[in-house]
Amino acid sequence: MQERAMNVTDKIDLLERNEQPVKKASAWTGLDTKTRLLIAAMFANKEQEVDPDAFKDLADWIKEQTSAWSYLRTNIRFSVAANLMLYTADPKKAFDSMMKMYDQLINSGFRRHNVTYLAALAVTTQAPELSDEERGRLADRAIALYKAIRNDRMFSTNEYDYPLVVLLAAGREEPMEAIAREVNDTYERLRKGHWKRGNDLQGLTHILALDTEKSVDEHVQRANDLFGAWERELRRVKPAFYSEIGVLTVRSAITQDITIVRDLEERINTLPAFRWNKELGTMIAAQFTASSDLEESPVSEHMMTTLAILQQAEMAMMMATVGAVTVATTSGN
Fold first, then answer.
1. Is 39 helix (H, G, I), strand (E, B) or coil?
2. pLDDT digits (tens, 9 = 90+) for 23-71
3. 260-293 burial code (b ≥16 CB/10 A, e <16)
4. Which residue of 42, 140, 182, 315 has the fewest CB atoms within a 10 Å radius of its CB?
5. Nearest residue to 130 (alpha-carbon basis) of 164, 185, 93, 162
6. DSSP state of 322
7. CA pair distance 27, 21, nearest whole angstrom
8. Contact at 8 Å (CB) between 202 and 153?
């Protein structure tokens, strides 16, 4: 008999159970609480228990594969390990593919940075069997798109755009200049409303551009509607929540779905681990809602994978914010 799919309440229970195994696997590594909880939520969102020994073994193996000054020797290896376990059939083989994609991105002009690994990971989870030639073409398209976007928004564009830019280059067939114009057009329309300018808003436009089934007008209208519902049901929309609204928009959420986000947030934030991490609780509530069977949208595996990469890009930003270990950009792999 086929097992019943988890509802969002089940996922919250699993999130709570997953925290301790992640904590055990990352003991004495300095992995911060926000990252630990987000990893636990990732597994819960895929309806999986965390096996602490398998998770630790893969994270340690990743560390062993890299040079002394690699970003992958820092705690980002845990987020990489989680994605490889959740979204690939053979994590170690997929890691090799990821590193080949990373090398291609560096050769094409991307900087050595923790999110460059996440960009390579994003491609690997969606297209693990690319040839070296295909990786090279994708990397060249991605850096062309990044430069085109940066030309329009120099002060809003930085390394944290890498994962979504690479996903756009992989998922869209149009010329890079056309995609950059669409992103800029969406940004300009949204900023006329209540959205704050900056990298968070730009990230939202990248998320919307991943969805080619809706027009820019439809994206802007739905995002604005969800913005208003968020303010009514939750509170002021901080830029930190823009990507969650973006994913909900792409998933064709309706304003009533924000009530679900509110209810889940209240439940998540009663958990002891979220006492000092309530903003993260809101993000996870939105992510659980986005991956559920929304009224107007079937579950798309592509967008589920994209959601995971968005989580990791946000995690990288949070890690930087809380002072996670970094290394010089001139270091080797």
1. helix
2. 999 999 999 898 899 999 999 988 999 999 999 999 999 999 998 889 9
3. bbbebbebbbebebbeebebbbbbbbbbbbbbbe
4. 140
5. 93
6. T
7. 10
8. yes
Q: Report the C-alpha gap between 214 and 225 in whole angstroms.
A: 15
Q: For residues 257 and 289, what is the distance between their CA atoms, to the nearest angstrom?
A: 8
The dihedral region occupied by 122, where left means phi > 0, alpha psi between -120 and 50, and beta the remainder, is alpha
Report CA 192 to chain centroid distance, whole Å: 26
| Backbone phi and psi for residue 154, each to the nearest 5 degrees, phi listed first | -60, -40
Q: Is the distance from CB of 74 to CB of 114 less than 8 angstroms?
A: yes
Single-letter amino acid code for the residue at 169: A
Separation between Cα atoms, residue 301 and residue 299, nearest integer Å: 6
Residues 136-186 have pLDDT tens digits of 999 999 999 999 999 988 888 889 899 899 999 998 999 999 999 999 999
| Tokens 């002394």 found at | 68
Tell me how far apart the alpha carbons of residues 60 and 247 are, in angstroms, rounded to a whole number: 32
In Å, what is the CA distance from 11 to each residue of 1, 46, 113, 208, 277?
21, 9, 32, 26, 18
Residue 78, CB-side half-sphere exposure with 13 Å CA sphere: 31
- Residue entry with tokens 């390579």: 120
Q: Tell me, what's the pLDDT at 326?
A: 30
Measured CA to CA, the distance from residue 210 to residue 199 in angstroms comes to 17
> What is the C-alpha to C-alpha distance for residues 218 and 12, in angstroms, rounded to an integer?
32
pLDDT tens digit sequence for 215-240: 999 999 999 999 999 999 998 999 98
**In which element (H, E) is residue 225 found?**
helix 216-233
Q: Which residue has the tokens 């994270």?
A: 59
